[in-house]
């Protein structure tokens, strides 16, 4: 095995250990979600402080080396396709031993195109108390954590649909 590959794996394991041992505490349900600003891989600015009060947010923390995260990508794409107008769907790559090139490659292989940011310095991961991937966080319109889970489940789907429904305006009934 080449030394550089061994070294990269060792750094990745050390980084993962540091992430897992970091003094992060998961946000409680109902707690105010930390606002952050970032730029997506496609160059779009995202400022949660500007989104809170207007629409709910679905954050999915993930990594390209996390097999289950990659397995869940089509699910995230389906939620984005179904509810992206009502709910801000944002993929947050944890930035640990990962790169924009890896993300683009995985997205191409999976046939997905999702708004994505890379948390290169780990601030977002730390503020949200993320200690493993995948990690899903739903934030209501008022900016409070509504739901957290490690897996894409029927309950996650129900919660996202409920948040999206709360954003739809009632249609006018005509006689």
UniProtKB/TrEMBL annotation:
Q: What Gene3D superfamilies does this protein's entry cite? A: Glutaredoxin (3.40.30.10)
Keyword vocabulary terms for this entry: Signal
Q: Tell me if DNA damage is a UniProt keyword of this record.
A: no
Q: Name one Pfam family in it.
A: AhpC-TSA
| Entries under InterPro entries matching the protein | AhpC/TSA (IPR000866), Thioredoxin-like_sf (IPR036249), Thioredoxin_domain (IPR013766), Thioredoxin_ResA/DsbE_sf (IPR050553)
**Signal peptide start and end residues:** 1-26
Domain (Thioredoxin) ranges: 27-165
Top-level division of the source organism's lineage: Bacteria
The name this protein goes by in its record: TlpA disulfide reductase family protein
Native species: Gilvimarinus algae
């Amino acid at each position: 095995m080449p030394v550089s590959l061994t070294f990269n794996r060792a750094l990745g394991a050390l980084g993962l250990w540091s992430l897992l041992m970091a003094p992060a505490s998961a946000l409680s349900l109902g707690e105010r979600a930390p606002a952050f600003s970032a730029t997506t891989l496609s160059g779009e600015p995202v400022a949660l402080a500007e989104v809170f009060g207007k629409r709910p947010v679905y954050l999915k923390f993930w990594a390209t080396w996390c097999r289950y995260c990659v397995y869940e990508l089509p699910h995230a794409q389906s939620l984005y396709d179904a509810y992206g107008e009502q709910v801000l769907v944002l993929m947050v790559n944890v930035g640990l031993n990962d790169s924009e090139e890896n993300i683009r490659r995985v997205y191409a292989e999976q046939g997905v195109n999702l708004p994505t940011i890379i948390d290169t310095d780990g601030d977002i991961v730390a503020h949200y108390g993320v200690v493993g991937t995948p990690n899903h966080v739903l934030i209501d319109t008022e900016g409070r954590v509504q739901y957290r889970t490690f897996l894409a489940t029927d309950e996650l789907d129900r919660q996202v649909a409920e948040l999206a429904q709360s954003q739809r305006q009632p249609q006018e009934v005509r006689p």
